[in-house]
């Protein structure tokens, strides 16, 4: 599937992170990639993040998965099931990301899939990230309101961040194939119209300033030796011993800035940090380590390599021909043949390695390492 009727440049100029946009079925041929029963099955599995939203009187209640299989037979009217990162488990759902890769991969979070019965929804709320809401099956009415922030009042609720007195500025009914783009912090409320309503939420992430500072500082501090301390060998008597002198503050401020200002080190740290798997508990490693002779033979035969849909691939250029490849929290220094391979792997979810690269010992070693960590596999089909 691809977006046959969608002006990407116009969207980026006028809507991305600026204002919502309704996109009426832009696909060449829309096909719903997942059945409701399959989604319910994932909600019953350990290691899959899921939530069930039900209405009790006038109040929404939330249950976290895994859910018992018979839970769905007990439900009344107007309920919603939400399952995170379904793209990690279903290739056809992962394929929904491909048309939206005009946004850099490092910004992509996952594809959450929701199923709702008539009248089901999660209430008016806002998110801190961009999202494309793709209607897969049935109909959903979306109302979109003004931009909110951390000071916006919320209804008291243990699990849900709901907006009181929601006033919509846009009102749309989405049918299969339609898309609603919602930028960060815009209030929105989706309610299923009729039964068997499925929506695919392609979410994007943006690290907060606090998150970057906290994790970068912790990373740098972990590598520092205990004797790297403030020193003042040029100390002189000051008029008031209770004063923290400007010279002391300048020296300590410089110590902190110096430790945090290494851009090359920051780039390597961020690549590692940003590529950490979303589901840290999932172990995708094969039972047996890759045999380099077998890897070399399969590459020579032109057997395609496929990325694990749950894996995060990205790279940072260090100056031609060197680059840093980041995959699932691991970093690989690449140049020459391995740099070409790294760019190819980051470009598409599957690739055939050309004969010249397949003959490179360094390429074989890198491919074997990525197979061993569960990030890459040969596509036998």
TrEMBL record:
Keywords for the protein's UniProt record, in alphabetical order: Dioxygenase, Iron, Metal-binding, Oxidoreductase
Cross-referenced InterPro entries: JmjC_dom, NO66-like, ROXA-like_wH
Protein name per its UniProtKB record: Cupin
Membrane-spanning intervals of the chain: none
PANTHER family referenced in this protein's UniProt entry, alphabetically: MINA53 MYC INDUCED NUCLEAR ANTIGEN, RIBOSOMAL OXYGENASE 1
Keyword Cell wall biogenesis/degradation: no
Keyword Oxidoreductase listed: yes
Record organism: Sphingobium fuliginis (strain ATCC 27551)
SMART domains, per the entry: JmjC
Entry-linked Gene3D superfamilies: 50S ribosomal protein L16 arginine hydroxylase, Chain A, Domain 2, Cupin
Domain JmjC: 92-221
Cofactor(s) listed in the protein's UniProt record: Fe(2+)
Pfam families the UniProt entry points to: JmjC_2, WHD_ROXA
Highest taxon of the lineage: Bacteria
